[in-house]
Amino acid sequence: MTSPVITVDSAGIRFRRNHKGRRSFKDLFGTKTRRSRPNEFWALRNVSFDVQPGEAIGVVGRNGQGKSTLLKLVANVLIADEGTVKVHAGVAPLIEITGGFVDDLTVKDNVYLTAGLHGMTREHVAEKFDAIIEFAEIEDFLDTPYKHLSSGMKVRLAFSVVTSLEEPVLLVDEVLAVGDKSFRNKCYRRIEEMLGEGRTLFFVSHNEGDLKRFCSRGLYLDKGTLKLDAPIQDVLDAYNNDYPGL
Ligand SMILES: Nc1ncnc2c1ncn2[C@@H]1O[C@H](COP(=O)(O)OP(=O)(O)OP(=O)(O)O)[C@@H](O)[C@H]1O
Question: How far apart are CA 201 and CA 55, in angstroms?
């Protein structure tokens, strides 16, 4: 067996429910164990799993159960408060679509910026640039500030850029729900190509068909815990059994 590309060990992360909630002096100066934490809750806790290179993993669960939070831990956008998340390869994250791009920069500058942040040289981006824009079908908007794109165009651009990064791990959070049908089909084909190249996929979706199409393994998150780590069909059966009609 090869060594895992991702190792998550007893990971936990907590958030504050209410940003306005104030901490008392006792909260601020008490010892770590005594300190009370008003409004805090564990969005994920005691989550452990390994991922082998080339696995395609579907993350399943109701709204607000920690799916996006898990992807953000893998993307290193969030840091675990407890336990460890080790990722031994570069990650191309397609999460929080509108968050990754800079509103006031043009489409062209955003492509260079995002690809550059993932280690691509200007020459390399220049080589791929036309293909990125063509896939996104936004040839007429190269000099348009990102903020003036329609929401569908933003998703097309993000999908095209992120899937052009040469990172071994791809994280896809829900985005395919937004695109129109013909674009979705293009995205499906590209994801299949990437899986064919041996990349590792983390895929959050509420669409059973999409999950079964791409993923062999599922992680079922419920109330911030990993309720089941099993073949995707078993995970979907357990989820449907717990929440029939969802
Ligand atoms: N930055 C944050 N600050 C405070 N709470 C947060 C933050 N990010 C997420 N949460 C909370 O953590 C919990 C898990 O959220 P998360 O986005 O991971 O859920 P999800 O399973 O992806 O849901 P959905 O299916 O609706 O996308 C929710 O209660 C959410 O409100």
Answer: 6
**How many angstroms does the Cα of residue 43 sit away from the middle of ligand 1?**
7
Any domain includes 4? no
Q: What's the structural domain count of the chain?
A: 1
What is the number of other CB atoms lying within 10 angstroms of the CB of residue 130? 10
User: Which stretch of DSSP H or E encloses residue 45?
Assistant: strand 40-51
96: Cβ–Cβ under 8 A, 6 or more apart, which residues? 68, 173
Cα of 55 from ligand 1 centre, angstroms: 25
Q: What is the pLDDT of residues 57-77, one digit of tens each?
A: 999 999 999 999 999 999 998
Q: Of all protein residues, whose CA lies closest to atom 31 belonging to ligand 1? A: 64
Determine if ligand 1 sits within 6 Å of the CB of residue 66: yes
Q: Give tens-digit pLDDT for 104-122.
A: 999 999 999 999 988 899 9
Among 41, 62, 65, 206, name the best residue to mutate to test ligand 1's pocket (greatest count of ligand atoms within 8 A of Cβ): 65
pLDDT value of position 203 = 94
**Cα-to-centroid distance, 50 and ligand 1 (Å):** 22
Of all protein residues, whose CA lies closest to atom 9 belonging to ligand 1? 69
Contacts of 202 (CB under 8 A, 6+ apart): 51, 57, 59, 70, 71, 74, 169, 170, 171, 172
Q: What is the CATH number of the domain that holds 194?
A: 3.40.50.300
Interval between CA 59 and ligand 1 midpoint (Å): 14
Structure tokens at 117: 């942040």
Give a yes or no: residue 119 inside a domain. Answer: yes
The reply to whether 204 falls in a domain is yes
Tokens encoding 186: 């293009």
